[in-house]
Amino acid sequence: MKTAFITGATSGIGKATATLLAKNNYRIIICGRRADVLEDVKTELSEQTEVYTLCFDQRNRTDVENAVNSLPQDWQDIDVLINNAGNAHGLDTLADGDVDDWDAMLDGNVKGLLYVSKQIMPIMQQQKSGHIVNISSVAARQTYTNGVVYCASKKAVDVISDGMRLELTEFGIKVTNIQPGLVETDFSKIRFKGDAERASTVYQGYKALEPVDIADAILYCISTPAHVAISDLTVYPSAQSEPRTVYKNL
Q1: Active site residue 220
Q2: Would the pLDDT of 228 be above 80?
Q3: For the whole model, what pTM was predicted?
Q4: Which candidate in 26, 52, 144, 150 is catalytic?
């Protein structure tokens, strides 16, 4: 049975992916910042498979190192890493931007992904096998106003994915970069700083992607034959033609 390590597994795409992999004969290491929610997810998924929880904030390098190093011996052989955790904060122009928002996005989306990957990549190199899935965004494909730093952080994920592929392929490690379009999660609520009513308008008038749609894509990518590697995958809802354009009432 393979073991998957999933960051941001307490909600949205991360939880949907953990749920789907649990149903498909994977052991799951679920990671997040909320211990109580992690335990709830563990209880739910333990009906399907073995589950281990790690509670840490991936923006804190020491917390990441301590968490991964705390894994029991029988959980240290990690076959799949899914770098899902990330965030978006605010919709200000660069001139009016909140520097704390910038730090949160760059620390979580870029540095946090690197911190986690740095702990897992040597394990896979030693095994000479593994698969890393990084969750980027269509925001990496087209910069838009009032979201420049978020777009930059996701463009960095694209570049890091390319670099991982260059450095890890010789070890038998696959790297997949997935760029989701609009997915109906708590993402917009966080971006709008808890304004649920405003966040809900983002998904009105059309059918957005659901977290399970991206989970399905992840499962497909990590289930290909050994000689097949999906390097990049962009997934839009059918009503979205590019990052800034959504046709409603289709």
Answers
A1: no
A2: yes
A3: 0.95
A4: 150
